[in-house]
Structures are given as C-alpha cells and as structure tokens.
Amino acid sequence: MPDQKQINFTIVPDDRTDAPRTYANFCAIATTPFDFTLTFCEVLPLSQKDLRDAETEHVVRAPVRAKVVVPLHILPTLITALQEHVRPAGELPPGSEWPRGPVH
Questions:
Q1: Is residue 104 scored above 50 in pLDDT?
Q2: Cα dihedral: 76, 81, 87, 89 (round 10)
Q3: What is the pLDDT of residues 14-64, one digit of tens each?
Q4: pTM of the complete model
Q5: Is 12 domain-assigned?
Q6: Which one, of 47, 46, 43, lies nearest residue 65 by Cα?
Q7: 18-27 burial by CB neighbour count: b if 16+ within 10 A, else e?
Q8: How many domains does the chain have?
Q9: Strand partners, 39
Q10: Do the domain assignments include residue 19?
Q11: Residue 97 covered by a domain
C-alpha cells in the first residue's frame, strides 16, 4: 500500500455563484441514527381565516424554503460554531442560557 500524504486545507464558500438567498424564520428538525434533516420554513403573518383554522385544527402550515440534511458527525462542530456566532450578537445576557423545553 503506497504511503498516504496528509494535506491540510480550509473550505470556504464560493460566493462567485448566483446561489439564491432564502429567508426562513422557523426550522423543524427530524433525526435518524445517521443524520439530521433541517427543514427551514417561512412563517408569514396569519390572516383572519388562518387564525380561525388554527383555532380548530391547531395547525399552521408554513411554506418550506429549504431542506438541509446534515451528517451526524458534523453536528458538534456546527453547534459550537452557531454558539460562537450568537455570542457576539448580544442575543443572550451574560450568564444566561437558552430556554429549555419545547419551542411550540
């Protein structure tokens, strides 16, 4: 077996493409033993009809804007990166933690 050479590199986004930017203000998460599926939706202001329907059905439908499947092994790094980027934004007061429990 030939000697394997290790190459260190950094992956950076290539912004030269015309990839669309998508807005989402809700994320549903589904898991398997192998990956997480993040389903990003846009929840729009509800009309009077939407409110009436929500009172009876207890469901509000939100258009899916993107689905991203993330392998399980990169989640710890993703979580750490998100926490590091939220901290400077001043979203949480010093010493506080994210609320626990369900978001719905």
A1: no
A2: -140
A3: 887 788 888 999 999 999 999 999 999 999 888 899 889 888 988 888 999
A4: 0.68
A5: no
A6: 43
A7: eeeeeebeee
A8: 1
A9: 28, 67
A10: no
A11: no
